[in-house]
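A student in our group prepared the protein record below, which I am reviewing. What it holds is a sequence and that sequence's fold in C-alpha cell form. My question to you is simply how this chain folds and whether the C-alpha cells agree. Do not assume that whoever made the record got everything right. I have pasted the whole thing underneath without changing anything:
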Amino acid sequence: MSYLQDDKARLRRLRAREAITLAMQSRWEEAVEANQVILDSFPTDVDACKRLGRALMELGQYAQAREAYKKALELDPHNQIAKKNLARLAILKEAEAPVDRHRVAPHLFLEETGRAGVVDLAHTAVPEVLARLAAGDQVFLNVSGRRLQVVSRQGTYLGEVEPRHALRLLELILGGNKYSAAVAALRDGGMSVIIKETFQHPSQAGRPSFPIRETETFRPYIRDTMIKYELEDEEALPLEEEYREEPVAEEAAAEAPLEEAAEEET
C-alpha cells in the first residue's frame, strides 16, 4: 500500500470517529457537516451515508434523510439498517417538528444485578408514535391503577410494562422506590425499555427490583454497548449498529503500524 493510500485511510477513520463523537453528543448539525465532508472525499462510504441519514432524521429533515439512506442502499442493497430507517421515514411526515429528546448516559444504567433490567412493553402505541423514538431516549414510568405505563418526555403514551414485571415494580414504587427509564430497543412495532432503580426506600430494603430468578426472561443489568450509537439497528442497541464502522482491508492495514507504534511507546 502506498503512503498516499495510508494517509487517505487514516484520514477517513479520523473523520468517521469525529462524526460518531458528534452524534453521541447530539450535535446533529455538526454531524451532518462532518459526514458530508467524508462523502465528498469518499462517496462510496456506506457508513457515512447511514450516519448522515440519522443526523438528518434527528433534525427533522426527512426528505434529505431518505436520500442519504437510499444512497446507502444503492451502495449496499442488503443493508438492513438503511431498509429499516427508510421504512421508519415512510411513517414520519416532513412537516413534523423533530422531537425534543433527551438521551440517557449509558453509565447511568450500569449497575449491580437486581437494580436494573430490560423489559418489553405490551399494548404499544401506534407506529407513527414509536417511529419518533430512538434507543437511549429518556422515558418515564406512570402508575395508572394496576398498570405501569411508559410515557415520553412530552407525556405521550408509549406502552405498558408487562404484567409479570409491572406488579412487582408497582409495589416498590408505591412503597417509595424511584426509577429512571430509557428506550432500549425498537423493532417490528414493539419496544423495550431499560429501567433502573435510583432510590430504594428504607421500607423496601432487601427487596431487589429485578430478582435473579427472572433472568431467564429478563436481563438484570445493562452492558454499556446497549446505548452505544446505532444508530440504529435498534435490535437491542448495540443504537446501534448505524455508527459501527465496518473496517475495510486497507484501513486495517493502515492502522496496524499506528497500533504497533502505540504499544512500543507504552
